[in-house]
Amino acid sequence: TQTMWNGILGKIALTAKDKVQIEELRLTPDIDNQTVNVSVKIGSNGSSPVSGKLLFAVKDPKGNKLADKEVQVNNTEITFTYPINNPMLWDEFTPNIYEATATLETEGMTDSKCEIFGMRKLTNQNALLQINNRRLFLRGTLECCIFPLKGYPPMDEAGWEKVFSAARDYGMNHLRFHSWCPPEAAFNVADRMGFYLQVELPLWTLNVGEDKGTVDFLYTEAAHIMKEYGNHPSFVLYCNGNEITGNFDFIEELTHYGRVSDKRRLFSGSTARTRVKSDQFYITHQTPKGHMAIYEGRPYTDWDKNKELGIDVPVISHESGQRCIYPNFKEIPNFTGPVQARNFEVFRESLAANGMLDQADDFFRVSGAQTVLEYKDVIEAELRTSLKSGFQLLALNDFTGQGYAPVGILDPFWESKGLITPEKFREFCAPTVALLRFPKRAYYCDETFEGKAEVYNYSPSILKSAKAKWWITDASGRVLKSGRLKTQRIGNYGVFPLGTFQYMLNSVTAPQKLTIHLSVGDKVHNSWDIWVYPHHKDLMQTTPDVLYTTTYDAKAKQYLQEGKKVVLCPKPNKVKGRKSVFHNHFWNPIMFKWAPTTLGCLIHADQPMFADFITEKHLDWQWWDILTNAKVIDMTDTPQELRPFIQVIDSYETNQKLGIGFEARVNNGKLLVLAVDTRKDLDKRPATQQLLKSIDQYVKSGQFAPRATVKEEFIQSFLIK
User: H/E element holding 712?
Assistant: First the structure.
């Protein structure tokens, strides 16, 4: 993973102490009884029985000193309850921190220990995560110890303020530390900011429980983590490690040990993989009821994962997202520490060798734009799933190891890649989010759009007399229609229906991208794009000058020989090459070499064949059915000046030139190739119809003038006879 995930960092010191001293001050809040349960362990260094007194003092979050308590000491472990009347609770919205000091006076020796704590309560109620007797939904990302500038995590609070502030800016309230435990500074910052942390043992293995030395270490390390960091209110979840396999009898024992010895947080055996009896929550991509993880969006939004839930513990989605972005080579100079971007240099050299280095920035930006829209759909699906207790993205920032996984909208330094602003991201990832269910993204103009509005509200505020508005705009921003949903009282800590609305699309007479807007009150707004097209009949009609064909046969060759035009749309099963998919590759194409290892498409939207097909340079949901019914052609050996107008972006490891649509001169004629199925259920594919209409108008115009020339042998090379 390029940097070490585990080891010893920070201050290492040998300290002389009196024979009798405070070893541990454990504070367990009880908000229901308005007390904190205090446990003090005293180390006596083998001396005679301890006797003396313990003075216990507390400051509330405002700095006010509460009543002191004096306890007589006649043992090495003291337990008592301390009243916290009308406690100020700790959570993400009210991160109230108390400070406790225990002073031991015995046999002429004095020792004191100061610890912070928060009055909060974590429970599982009806298989839903609860904090302070109300529902908790975690919007989280992973922290995989990616700190390239130093090669190890920050030991100062400023470094962690950057991490947590970035996560909060993008609507997160939670971080999972993937198979490691952060230093004290991270807990201190999270406590102040109201950030929920999941801490794990340094455990990611396929044979857990086999080695006695490792087993002993894990027990000891778990105990040390609870002792050193257990009072921090931000430390809400504990797990033994990541995707563990091996002896789960041992994992159950280890989980049970933590659960019975520490009531301050919830425990789980392993993120993903096997459940154990002592689990108090479950992070997974699969439950006994079905597949749980959400890795990509869909060409509609009327779905969730509620039917896969309903097990006996709260469920949190494991490592959601993970859609890959082409690397940004402009980041290379930013690696000024021990981690150098040598892999980026190799990828860049490969791209240059294949004649496309000038397209590097386009590849980064269009694949990044697609990953942004994937994250929007993934997160909204998570929020619509009302029976879930949260999600953990992988990840908000890039992962520098395993060959490089550029899946983040932030770079490895927790800086923005410039793909989406925090404000725009918070429209779909925040304590309160407007949601909309609808059945598809591409419509005919004689259809009706219907949306079912919802609101995810995990804010502390009930929305009294909430006014929900919807409106529809065209590409110029002109409002086509608007309306209001019923004003109502909307609760909090849940997902609530707002109502439905419809819009007849028959006023749309030409292809258009429309935007559906939904707002709740003055501050909550979200939007979704749909595409509306007219019906087209008699597409791909051959004329004396233009031949439409699915095969490169004698007639096609004759047209080209005579200087005419040919549009070749071969059936996908007759094309050699990779499968076409809408989604970017999962995680990274070096670790997971799953076909087709592509990262979206660069659409040459400024070229005239798209004059009547609305598109950006990047893929959006109108491309779904086009790409689902297409094939990817390897064009690596074609002339450098030949760039496909639908250019598929290859893995940054191999950087082949790939295309679904291209044009070229062949013999004396002009050829346009579109490796898309133009026959299968075409009446149900409005976007494909419109693309074909736009191409038809182009090739029958005087603008059809390909500049690059290819030999006939190249055309035959990718066709199956």
Answer: helix 712-717
Query: Helices 157-169 and 184-193 meet at what angle, rounded to 10?
Result: 40
CA distances from 372 to 319, 365, 393, 411, 433 (A): 16, 10, 13, 14, 17
Instruction: Tell me what pLDDT residue 602 has.
Output: 98
DSSP state of 297: -
For residues 352-363, give the mean pLDDT: 98
Strands 109-117 and 122-125: unpaired
Q: Are 208 and 252 in contact (CB under 8 A)?
A: no
3-state helix, strand, coil in the chain (%, to 5): 20, 35, 45
Pairing state between β 565-568 and 546-549:
parallel
Q: Are 19 and 44 in contact (CB under 8 A)?
A: yes
Coil, helix or strand at residue 637: coil
Helices (H), 72-156: none
Q: Are the C-beta atoms of 368 and 327 separated by less than 8 Å?
A: no
Contact 29, 120 (CB under 8 A): yes
Sheet holding 98-106, edge to edge: 69-73, 52-59, 98-106, 109-117
Q: What is the mean pLDDT of the chain?
A: 96
From residue 96, give the alpha-carbon distance in Å to each of 92, 116, 118: 9, 10, 6
CB of 396 closer than 8 Å to CB of 410: yes
Beta bridge partners of 503: 449
Any idea which residue has 């952060």 for tokens? 182
Token pair of 620 as six digits: 């959006």
Q: How far apart are CA 260 and CA 255, in angstroms?
A: 9
Tokens 């789980």 locate to 268
pLDDT band at 344, cuts 50/70/90? very high
What 3-state class would DSSP assign to 702?
A: coil
Task: Give the per-residue pLDDT at 289.
Answer: 92
Strands 266-268 and 290-291 come out as unpaired
Which of these, 471, 468, 441, 472, lies nearest to 455 by C-alpha position?
468
Beta-carbon count within 10 A of 670 CB: 21
Q: Given this model, what pLDDT does residue 49 score? A: 76
| φ, ψ of residue 33 in degrees (nearest 5) | -100, 5
* 161 closest CA partner among 192, 203, 139, 123: 192
Q: What is the pTM of this model?
A: 0.96
- In the chain, what percentage of residues exceed pLDDT 70? 99
Tokens at 709, concatenated: 């020339």
What are phi and psi for residue 440, nearest 5 degrees?
Answer: -165, 170
Alpha-carbon gap, residue 234 to 197, rounded angstroms:
6
Sign of CA dihedral 28, 29, 33, 34: positive
Task: Classify 278 as helix, strand or coil.
Answer: coil
